[in-house]
Amino acid sequence: MTSDRVLENQQSAKGRVLRVAASLFRERGFARTTVRDIAAEVGILSGSLFHHFPNKESILAQLMEELILLVEDAMERQLAGKREPRDRLRVLVACELQAIHGEIGTGFSILVTEWRSLSPASQAHILALRDRYEQRWLDCLKNLKAAGGLSAEPSLARHFIRGAAMETWHWYKPDGPFTLASLADQLVDLVVHP
Amino acid sequence: MTSDRVLENQQSAKGRVLRVAASLFRERGFARTTVRDIAAEVGILSGSLFHHFPNKESILAQLMEELILLVEDAMERQLAGKREPRDRLRVLVACELQAIHGEIGTGFSILVTEWRSLSPASQAHILALRDRYEQRWLDCLKNLKAAGGLSAEPSLARHFIRGAAMETWHWYKPDGPFTLASLADQLVDLVVHP
Amino acid sequence: MTSDRVLENQQSAKGRVLRVAASLFRERGFARTTVRDIAAEVGILSGSLFHHFPNKESILAQLMEELILLVEDAMERQLAGKREPRDRLRVLVACELQAIHGEIGTGFSILVTEWRSLSPASQAHILALRDRYEQRWLDCLKNLKAAGGLSAEPSLARHFIRGAAMETWHWYKPDGPFTLASLADQLVDLVVHP
Amino acid sequence: MTSDRVLENQQSAKGRVLRVAASLFRERGFARTTVRDIAAEVGILSGSLFHHFPNKESILAQLMEELILLVEDAMERQLAGKREPRDRLRVLVACELQAIHGEIGTGFSILVTEWRSLSPASQAHILALRDRYEQRWLDCLKNLKAAGGLSAEPSLARHFIRGAAMETWHWYKPDGPFTLASLADQLVDLVVHP
DNA sequence: TATGAATGAGACTTCATTCAT
DNA sequence: AATGAATGAAGTCTCATTCAT
Predict the structure, then answer these.
(1) What are C11-38's pLDDT values in tens digits?
(2) Within a domain: residue D99?
(3) Residue B108 clears pLDDT 90, i.e. is over it
């Protein structure tokens, strides 16, 4: 059931649809974005969308799937060589913030905000991916706690971090006083008591 | 334009509509909740809703308005007599968590998640109320910082707290290992370094 | 799941929809009849149809159901007092022909021609009714055979009669050389050897 | 406008399309069969169909045409040497039943059931062929009547036979109690009083 | 000949809203 | 205040057909 990854493929029509959809879903929400909106922005007619996706929801589902994979890729790359638990946590935080605000993964916040828009079937599929993603966080936080760098319960810490990170979507402005990097630092400082 | 407060009025038909709507909006989201759903749960027919509200959006708008007022009421009551900045912060956190999960204000998270569903006109009205509400938080956090109990920027701290608190809606279970009170304590501990 | 009978209710909006649909389905077939066609002929807008029926198919389903019940009513009435097996067969044949061509049950042929247009769920429901209807035929033919008035296998005889009767829909013209009554007589003569 | 006969040509792509279409049209009906369904079963893409047929309807039209020709061929062959009117009628009945259920002409019933799906233009063309086919039946039945073997009106007899024969499509099972040959015999016995 | 992306008309359906009763 | 039939705009989706490659 897992499709090829096309989100970053600049040539692919599916990729173009996915990128446009990500932007519109983030901006207006899934329900308020019409397939005509998406098609118009892509430069095709609405009927043509269904040549690539069986229905509107599958656009959201595939988008979510690829977004998770993309963040995992970034984490994998940046974790290479990092051994210190605190450094590894900072990578996770930075990657998640990047995913929420960054160039490519624009729309990671959709994962939380549009969860209800998926059918139960799709939810189950994405859930499996999300579980793996969250497990990575838990492993990291458990190591940190074992090393004495965390006083809170790891799962609770993850909930707080996720909430704080996702919430940045509602207020963070790239041209404001903070860079994403400094945001990541402060979030880590908050959770990791010295 | 500001209407009377009816959310807590058990007899009032408007109050019943508002409470039902709060529950459904939180569960399914505004767009996926139909006026028929609301009417059915209230026990009337959909057409009758429009004797109480001019349109669907106004239900959401009035709901948001009353929810803010309700939380402010609770804060006002519990802040009475509290002078210590740290104690006052704890009251705010506890009240916000109560609003998100508690009996009456169920649906406070709608304020963030369904923001986009309001028309610009309604947004402006609610925004004024929200600004006042957020100002209360900032004042409290500034006092705390002045007293040396906060290392982070007050506005940033508020964003983190809000994110963490709202996120609890996605995972917190009353019958789980935490009480709302302990959650409030831990959130305060996180932000307020001793 | 069985709804009230409204096909013959001249006042009822549902009844009017059903009668119009019967006529159009018979004329153009189910698939080539649009809900707009039906609504236009009824004198309402297409959206209003769905106030009465959950979807297009349910119009066909309820229509089929009521048509069967209607024919059974007619048979019941005309069978009263008839004891002779041959006479009883003639009643069945005449009623079925009436249903196919007559004033009221116009569209009985839909039962055969549009069978495939129903979803499996609807098919099952109608099938139960149809079975009862066919059982009445078999009982009649068995009695006739027991009385020595039928040489063919009863079930085979029913198949032949049904085919011949339904086929009349494709060629019979009320202003042609035959009346429906004479058609019934000849069909009975054909099957019942003296 | 008359095309070559390709239905039985195993190699020809057009022949393959026609055979697949016959099967699908009979199974689901013309309107519920998509060109994609046909193409998929043939093993090509939907666009490629239009290299062989100008449009969907022409598939049905050519199919109908060839089916008639095919039955006429069979009749021609089996009528050779038969002089007795009753024997000749039996050939016609057997051939028609073969066409409805047999290997190749699978879908002969389409001629009646999907008549409405043709445009007037196509209807006219097929009508001419059908008239010739029906004339053959009438001639045969008239001869039979002249010979005293038929009491009913020839045209009426034909209608009855056609209906009964077509209806077999809805109930006849090759592994049931009847062979097609015995079915033909019984149908002839029914019509031809000794 | 075949491909398959794209078309575009039109289908069914949903749903907030209106209004006579 | 409530009803419930009706509205009508807008939505998702289907599908025969076209055409550059």
Answers:
(1) 889 999 999 999 999 889 999 999 999 9
(2) yes
(3) no
The separation between CA D33 and the C-alpha centre of its own chain, rounded to angstroms, equals: 19
Q: Which chains touch B (3 or more CB pairs under 8 A)?
A: A
D19 — pLDDT class (breaks 50, 70, 90):
very high
A84 CA – E8 C1', rounded, Å: 59
Instruction: Give the angle D175-D178-D180 at the CA atoms, nearest 5°.
Output: 95
Chains B and A touch each other (3 or more Cβ pairs < 8 A): yes
Q: The tokens 């290392």 sit on which residue? A: B151
List the CATH number of the domain containing B105. 1.10.357.10
Question: What integer is the mean pLDDT of A149-172?
Answer: 93
| Per-position DSSP letters for A51-106, written without gaps between them | HH-SSHHHHHHHHHHHHHHHHHHHHHHHHTT--SHHHHHHHHHHHHHHHHHSSSST
Min Cα separation C16/chain D (Å): 25
Give pLDDT tens digits for B121-164: 899 999 999 999 999 999 999 999 999 999 899 999 999 999 99
The domain in which residue B116 lies consists of: 59-191
Is residue D20 domain-resident? Answer: no
Residue C86 and residue C157: Cα distance in Å, rounded? 14
Predicted confidence at residue A1, as pLDDT, reads 45
Any domain includes C33 = no
| Strand F bases with any atom < 7 A from protein Cβ | 1-20
Q: How many domains does chain C have?
A: 1
Q: How far is CA A4 from CA A15, A111, B171, D45, in A?
A: 10, 19, 31, 22
pLDDT at B104: 64
Instruction: Give CA–CA dist C20/A34, Å, rounded.
Output: 34
Residue of A nearest to B118 (CA): A28
CB contact under 8 A, C117 and D29: yes
Nearest by Cα to A96 from A169, A47, A7, A156: A169
C149 close to C88: Cβ distance less than 8 angstroms: no
- Is B164–A168 a contact, with Cβ atoms under 8 angstroms apart? no
Q: Is the pLDDT of residue B42 over 50?
A: yes
Pick the residue with more confidence: D166 or B106?
Answer: D166
Pick among D151, D155, D167, D171 to test the C interface (most C CBs inside 10 A): D167
Report the pLDDT averaged over residues A103-122.
82
Residue B171 in domain: yes
